[in-house]
Design brief:
This protein has about 180 residues and is of the alpha+beta class. About 45% of the residues lie in helices and about 15% in strands. It folds into 2 domains: about 5-60, no CATH class; about 70-160, Arc Repressor Mutant, subunit A, CATH 1.10.10.10. The strands form 2 sheets. Strands 1-2-3 form a 3-stranded antiparallel sheet, covered by helices on one side. A two-stranded parallel ribbon has the order 4-5. A hairpin with a 2-residue loop joins strand 1 (about 5-10) and strand 2. Helix 3 packs across helix 4 (about 110-115).
Length: about 180
């Protein structure tokens, strides 16, 4: 199998993208020092799509990814990774809730291990899993990135809400004679 790799520079560091010719295989954070010198190489269509979607996600324009993913892991890990993909943008869940969703409360530590071994960070949103008490715990990409990613959703939701409130206020103000006078001052 031929694999392709490229790098994406994000607000939270460099991200290495590894794909086959038809699916995303791995997406992980790397140190700048780990980046290979740039050489002219082919970029797969999956890499191009992934870069575009990551860019839109970090701009706040994309909430869910639509990429073909090729995951290799045990049946249990696959089930955890599939469950992670059901966590909506703007929401979090706990390791305990995730193990309950998988109908195996006793597997809470195994759920944490599978979450930590997620090969496709961000795309499969393992950063949306937090402790039962609401604490940020465990993230292979480092906790500061997890915090940033969770705040991204707050920023996007708050920004969009502020736009809606501003438009609503302007509409109400424009239809009110007294408010229109205030705007003209």
């Amino acid at each position: 199998m031929t694999s392709y790799n490229t790098y994406f520079s994000s607000h939270i560091g460099f991200i290495e993208i590894i794909t086959s010719s038809n699916a995303l295989i791995k997406l992980s954070f790397i140190d700048e020092a780990s980046i290979s010198p740039l050489t002219e190489k082919k970029i797969s269509p999956v890499e191009t799509t992934c870069i575009h979607q990551l860019d839109e996600y970090f701009k706040g324009n994309l909430r869910t990814f639509d990429l073909p993913i090729q995951l290799e892991g045990t049946a249990f890990r696959q089930s955890v990774w599939n469950a992670l993909q059901t966590i909506p943008f703007g929401k979090t869940t706990s390791y305990l809730q995730l193990s309950k969703q998988l109908r195996n409360v006793k597997a809470i530590r195994a759920v944490g291990t599978a979450n930590g071994s997620n090969p496709v960070a961000i795309i499969i949103p393992c950063h949306r899993v937090i402790g039962s008490n609401g604490d940020l715990i465990g993230y292979a990409g480092e906790l500061w990135r997890k915090k940033w990613l969770l705040h991204l959703r707050s920023y996007v939701c708050t920004w969009r809400a502020n736009i809606i409130l501003t438009v609503a206020f302007c509409f109400i103000a424009a239809s009110c004679v007294n408010c229109t006078k205030l705007f003209l001052l």
